């Protein structure tokens, strides 16, 4: 199968290589001249045989919106566009509408696997019409991990379902990572634990908390057992916020996600205004010691 792939960054370039290794032709476009196969979107479209399939792997928001709007003017009826970036699920329907006005089909695909996906395969969550999903199955099969299809791929539902599933996936990821973080801090604080990193390594086999995230954590600790070179500042991609907003809208309690997301916010504060106020209040009502900055 032939595929046009727009966006050859950390994920896109590895995805292109995995698809090529499965025997498919990939023509990639990126603004970086060192990795692109074509000069612009027009050349990309001209080199693909109709009906075309194009995968967009760009940052959420304006980069993806602008690219899909451009493709709507360049592609022909019957062509298919797949948005594989971390777009908000609510963007899927407007993207589909822009393309449908020109007779162009659309799927949204949540992709998980990070920089290890080229070797291990990617978890794929797809939204869209069943016929469009079947049409792109050779590409999905090339990207997913080896083994039963349902263990690395799901047609989650209609338009937007793929990105919704990926949003929830990332929300679960937030909670798992923060649970490991709290466990690490508690082990470090204990007077009876001599080898916190060794405890995590001991959990890698046979325990109920083993996971790929734990394997990656152990790798990080092998590189730096004290994490001394790591700053606490932790960004968020937006998916945790979107998931929490959805939870509020559906009245679904997600305290783990909320705690993990707010902990990331706290990691960016050198001196928390909220905790400054709490400290000052303790001094006022109880005469407790108030520590002052230099």
From TrEMBL:
SUPFAM superfamilies: 6-phosphogluconate dehydrogenase C-terminal domain-like (SSF48179), NAD(P)-binding Rossmann-fold domains (SSF51735). Keywords: Gluconate utilization, Oxidoreductase. InterPro entries: 3-OH-isobutyrate_DH-rel_CS, 6-PGluconate_DH-like_C_sf, 6DGDH_YqeC, 6PGD_dom2, 6PGDH_C, 6PGDH_NADP-bd, NAD(P)-bd_dom_sf, Pgluconate_DH. The keyword Ion transport does not apply. The keyword Oxidoreductase applies. Residues 162-294 form the 6-phosphogluconate dehydrogenase C-terminal domain. Pfam families: 6PGD (PF00393), NAD_binding_2 (PF03446). GO terms for biological process: D-gluconate metabolic process; organic acid catabolic process; pentose-phosphate shunt. SMART domains: 6PGD (SM01350). This is 6-phosphogluconate dehydrogenase. It comes from Propionibacterium cyclohexanicum. One of its GO terms (molecular function) is NADP binding. Belongs to the 6-phosphogluconate dehydrogenase family.
